[in-house]
Design goal:
Layout lengths: L1 H16 L9 E2 H4 L5 H8 L3 E5 L2 E4 L1 H36 L3
Antiparallel strand pairs: 1-3, 2-3
Helix pairs in contact: 1-3
Length: about 100
Amino acid sequence: MVSILRKERRVVEHFRAVGATSPATARRLDDLHERHTLGLRRLRNRAVIRESSPEHFYLDEEVWHALGRTRRRVSIVVLVLIVLLIIGVLGVSRLIAPS
């Protein structure tokens, strides 16, 4: 998972570096020297990389930041659920343990 996120960040940094951050500054993937990688596919599926006109793409910064916030929230919820599960298991094991 970390590797996939790293690939996504690399794509985002590439689009930022060439200034393809709005429909007006959208670029062709060939001009960006960007291949159809896993990171690019995932970002296109999540509308972070958008097509403004045929074959011209740009980074939607607002969607990128929203995706980051959503991922952080999901991570926190998963962490809280894991902690609650551990507390529940410890509580049940104390009830079951012989005195």
